Amino acid sequence: MQTASLLPVWLVLATLGLTFLVDLSGRPRTALRVAALGGLVALLSLIWTPDGAFLGLSVDAYVRFAQAVLLGAAVLALLASPPYMRHFRMERLAGDYALLLLFTLLGGMLLMSVRDWLALFVAFELLSIPLYAAAALNKRSPEGAEGALKFFLFGSVSSAFLLLGVGMMTLVSGSTAFSSVVVREAFLPAGLALLLVGFGFKVAMFPFYFWAPDVYESAPTPLVAFLSVAPKAAGILILFRILQEVVLPAGLSSALAWVAFASALTMVVGNLLALPQTHLKRLLAYSGVAHIGYVLAALAAGTAEGAGMSLFYFTVYLFSNMGAFLGVAAVEMMGLSPTLEGVAGLYRRSPALAMSFLAFLLSLGGIPFVLGFWSKLFVFFAAAQAGLWVLVFLGALLAVVALFYYLNVARWMLIVEEMQEEPAGPPPAAVVALVVMAAFVVVVGGLVPQVLVQPALLAAGG
Amino acid sequence: MNPVFTLLVVLVMAASLGVVLSRSVFRAAYFLAFALVGTGFLYLGMSPIFSAVQILLYTGGVLTLVIFAVMLSGKPELSTVFHRPAQGLIAALLVFFALLSLTARLPEPPEPRTIPVDVFAAYFFREGALAFEILSLLLLAALFGALAVARKQGGEG
Amino acid sequence: MKAFYLVLFAPFVSFALLALWPGLRRSGKPAAWTSIAAVAVSLLSAIALFFQYDGGVHEVRWVWIPLAHFPSLTVGFLVDGLSVVMALVVALVAFAVQVYSLGYMSEEPPASLGRYYTYHSLFTFSMLGLVFANNLLEAYIFWELVGACSYLLIGFWFYKPSAARAALKAFWTTRLGDVGFALGIAVLFAHFGFLSYDKLFALEPSHALFLGLLGVYVGAMGKSAQFPLHIWLPDAMEGPTPVSALIHAATMVAAGVFLMVRLMPALQHTPELLHLVLWIGAITAFLAATMALVERDIKRVLAFSTISQLGYMMAAVGALSAGAAFFHLFTHAFFKALLFLAAGSVIHAMHTNDMFAMGGLARPMRWTMILFLVGALALAGMPPLSGYFSKDEILVATAHAPVPFALLMITVFLTAFYMFRAFFLTFTGEPRNPESHPHESPVVMLWPMGVLAILAAVAGFFGSTVHEMLNHSLGFESLHSGEEHHPAWIPYLGLGLGLLGILVAWMGYARRIFRPERVYAAFYPLAKVLEERYFIDHIFLLLYWLGYNTVATVVGFVDRYIVDGVVNFVTWATFEVGKALRRFHNGVVQDILLGVVVGFLILAFFATGF
Amino acid sequence: MSFRALLFLSAWMFATGIFGVLSRRHVVALLLSIELLFNGVNLALLTFAWAYGALSAASLAFLGIAVTVAEVAVGLAIFLLVVRLTGKAAADELKQLAG
To answer: Among A24, C138, C271, C363, whose Cα sits 20 to 30 Å from the Cα of A9?
Structure first.
């Protein structure tokens, strides 16, 4: 039963169809719930999904792990969306929103399991194009439209580079499949360079990250939560495969040096830019750039451990970063602005939310005893094993800078007095429940990280 | 070198410049059509099927969309055409030289041959079957996306 | 040996109760009693552990993170002579300080008091965790936790901007050290694949060992306020005084020294590093003492003194004399905590930290004065109080290195001088602020000080016990003592310099500050002698102004504008670079698309092979 | 027909497109410049396909055209939304989001 290996993909496709039908029958909010439920079922189905290859899509433990991260991100975003849409009176578009998110999810899941360049390109675009539209969905916000336009322009320009790069990669081996055969060597460095432009955009790597803060600030927050995890995870994790299956066997070992270089710059720039931010979504956007710098350090190690560590990193990131964004969504739904002044004294308004935020911020900052500490530590281990001491040192130094802005947010939430005059409503219970759950995972996971580390290492198959 | 070929190349180069330099967006669109059709003619010698796709589908499709958009927005031109042209020029020149130096390292081709339509079709539907399936999803998604963006939200200002 | 579970986890239980039960925390006094009860249990168990201790090395160990491709990480606890003594010190000082805080913090609102004791419980737990840790990673985790409690308590009065700033400064400086610590751990783990002490102690000398231990030492420099990472400690005095006594004098700042003592069996393989430790320790001791000379704030005098004494301990570590270092840590914990609590008692009465606004407190605060005097004499190294014995050991241990030894000797004099300057300014003479009506502190504050004073007085006699306990610690059997035969004049010289310091403080300072007629009346014979040597007195004053004051000012200047300035500059520059980078994000899509182009150009540059 | 001349033309179109993307103000002009970019890439891909007999590159060019059309459709919808909400068609006037 080779088709069974695509069980989650089939389920997401079926969910897409069902969501479309429900939306068509004039019940957009139900469509959103159907999409969330379908995503959850697909996530659970991963347990019974076997290895296999079908239609040129191959599935193994690594792919399943990555798909689980993507599905987890989608389910969290979809579950948090109904109250958000209600609050911002976007319910008529809830069905479209769900559909676009599912299309993106599908693109990501397919991207994880493709083994040929043509499908890689198309799946990559399927991961991008619906997001441009989804970012523009709040049609009361001129900023939303502006952000979407920037997102679209950035994506299109970089996908032109990507198209050329993918073309060159097929010429290297003379076939469409991922292969380490080298027929025309001269295409390899050029192809990889162009490929990295496209992936650089997708994962918001330096200097291709410029769209991220603008889009994050303006797009609907649950979507941003998804956007900040899933496409990045998909991009990095497939890049790992490409490096391991194509580029390194083909003999371009300097590729790792390029990635290490990008990692260093991305860490530095992301952290420094996050420092002066006052808008929480922008701050998280830049901190996300910095985090990609850390994952790239594992990528630059180019080892199976590195792959396992980045799987683990994204799992941790899924909970801490999505948790933080969903927390921001809850803040917005309380009628507060998502800025430092807006969240001042949040602890007094909603202790549960503020304490969960603290857990996320500590985790993102890599403080011991929470999950984020382990992900950073293991990435450093992976980089250190590959002898990338400069990256380890830089990363450790910048972690101090990062702690500064993360703890600054915590300080505003927990210590500073309320500043916004108008009374804030209570946060929606459903979103708070999701946030608290994520915080629980972050805190408890920090005590028993092996529950996640071992499957990640096994999945990377080193 | 074949004079027709040289002429075509020069024309396409000029048309490309026309796209980015002409004041009115309408005129830029016509120049783009010119460049696309010119490229389409160049494709004749390489792969006739592409020539057809380029001239019949691509040029027509893209241009119809663009002209619709300009007419719907009612803003065919702006008071100033350029934003920091010097910056763009330097960047474009650097990109140009970077591309040339990347392609300069490519090996000389053995013997260029026109790609027969049937060979290409057979190859594409064998190797590109999966990509084609995903492409259908992508087109569907783009359709949904464009419609969702164009739809009125209800009660908006 | 099971008692140590009680020592370690009693404070954790009270922390968990206070943290998870807001009703209890906000109730104030009941929260305080919960925390005190827990630390009392901890203290009793520590005493029991001390007397039960059989001289062996006991270890419990679990596999924490079994990794497929990395060596597994283990956690566990180590009960040996070193941890037993250290745990006793920590529990004792913590208990005294928590009881004392009942009086000192009595004006706090209940919710705030509860928060205070919550932090205290967490701190005690983490500090004990650090003491019992059996590997570097676990030590690092508790180390960070201890640091976190320290920031929380320095910034406890967060509505004071200076307190918030001080917490931030402590955070930055110690984090900088912790980066070194983390890197050191990473080096050791990447190179050897284990972090537990017993395996580290069995290592042969190697380059990786040196680098790793250097990193750990940088971490210890941050926590134990070694030059030039000392700058946070004086500012940390913005926290409540009991906190300064517990965290910034007796326990946490000593953690760096403790860790170095703990790692001594490994450190002996890195003589170059030990040399560095010795020099930095001596320099720290000397510089901090000179800075204390011109300080007006009584708590900051004590803070500088703490830095200086930590310098002594580190110098002893550097001289390969772990015993002397740990013994001084042991005695210092008691007398410095005592001094802080006594200073707190004064501040509690006067509502100011400025010594020049005090004076004449001997009469209204008789007990406080006596207690402070005991602490000051101990610190100045006057026999038979504890400081005499431990300082003496350090001087003997460092006698083989002339320059550090000389610095430490001079510091003995300076220490006695500034301590008694503080003592005279605070307690003798006329009250300089007639508005204030100081009163003796409540019994709940005096009792803990009394206990500490007794210990500060007699702790010196436990020298042989401490040394023996240390010899029963993990890896110490193999360690040879750094002490050889040294001239017998060292103790006398130390004692003489200390006495001279006290005398000069009295002569130079008292004369300069008090009204002459009162000095005449009080100390007529001695003043007469001084008057006859009027010229010398003036030379002394001149020398004082030209010499010590200039040195102190220069050192203060270097400290404030250069060391401090570098830290501030780095902070400022980081922010400025961030802001400068922000300018590229001008929101214009054409301009930010330049990022893609630049990125492509960089990659193309790589791809063409340069 | 010359391999080098075709690659030169491709680079020319791409660079012109880059100039347009970086320096034109009108959003639609940016879109047209992006079309130039893609056309330059497609020309390069087909040239490779023709010169080396690599059908994979031709297949990719085929997919590229379809993807471009999909992108343009979404992009123009977003452009119309921007005009409707802000009344601006110049990309450099849209700078509410910055920093």
So the answer is: A24
- B81 closest CA partner among D32, A142, D35, D71: D32
Give the span between the Cα atoms of C82 and C105, in whole angstroms. 33
Determine the length of chain C. 610
Determine the Cα–Cα distance for residues C71 and C66; give it in Å rounded to an integer.
7
Are the Cβ atoms of C582 and A273 closer than 8 angstroms?
Answer: yes
Distance CA(A120)–CA(A378), nearest Å, equals 29
Token pair recorded at residue A392: 């380890």
Residue of A nearest to C591 (CA): A210
Which residues from chain D sit within 8 angstroms of residue A164, using beta carbons?
A: 41, 44-45
Give the pLDDT confidence of C75-87 residue by residue, as tens digits. 888 888 888 999 9
Mean pLDDT (chain A, rounded): 91
Q: Copy the structure tokens of residue D25.
A: 């103000």
- Answer yes or no: are the C-beta atoms of A379 and A371 closer than 8 Å: no
Nearest partner of A266 among A243, A295, A246, judged by Cα = A295
Whole-Å CA distances, A368 to A244, A325, C27, C59, C131: 32, 22, 30, 23, 18
pTM exceeding 0.90: no
Residue C338: closest CA among C96, C584, C44: C96
Nearest chain C CA: its distance from D17 CA (Å)? 12
Nearest to C150 by CA among C284, C228, C247, C277: C247
Contact A160 D34 (CB under 8 A): yes
> Which residues in chain D have Cβ-Cβ distances shorter than 8 Å to B120?
55, 58-59
Beta-carbon separation of D51 and B109 below 8 A: yes
The three-state (H, E, C) secondary structure of C67-103, written as one string: CCCCCCEEEEEEECHHHHHHHHHHHHHHHHHHHHHHH
Which comes out higher in pLDDT, residue B31 or C437? B31
| Closest in D91, D96, D99 to C590, CB measured | D91
Burial per residue of A429-455, b for 16 or more beta-carbon CB atoms within 10 angstroms, e otherwise: eebbebbbbbbebbbebbeebbebbbb
Enter the DSSP assignment of A423.
P
Distance, CA of A411 to chain centre? 26
* pLDDT confidence bin for C265, thresholds 50/70/90: confident
Pairing mode of beta strands C73-79, C58-65: antiparallel
Nearest by CB to A118, from B131, B144, B156: name it.
Answer: B131
- Contact yes or no for C587 and D22 at CB 8 A: no
Closest CA of chain D from B16, distance in Å = 6
**A137: its two tokens:** 């969905």
Give the whole-angstrom CA distance, residue C85 versus residue C91. Answer: 10
- Mark yes or no for CB contact C608/B101 under 8 Å: yes
Rounded-to-integer distance, Cα A293 and Cα A310, Å:
11
d(CA C427, CA A239): 72
**CA within 13 Å, CB half, C219:** 28
Closest Cα in chain B, distance from residue A372 (Å):
35
pLDDT exceeds cutoff 90 at C370: no
Taking the CB of residue D24, how many other CB atoms lie within 10 A of it?
30
DSSP string of A340-385, one letter each residue: TTTTTTHHHH-HHHHHHHHHHHHHHHT-TTSHHHHHHHHHHHHHHH
* Residue pair A330/A428 in contact by the 8 Å Cβ criterion: yes
Of C86, C80, C85, the closest CA to residue C60 belongs to C80
CA–CA dist A365, A373 (Å, integer): 8
CA–CA min distance B44, chain D (Å): 11
Interface predicted TM-score (ipTM) over 0.85: yes
Helix (H) or strand (E) holding A127, with range, is helix A117-135
Using the beta-carbon criterion (under 8 Å), do D54 and A129 form an inter-chain contact?
Answer: no
Element counts in chain A: helices (H) and strands (E): 19, 2
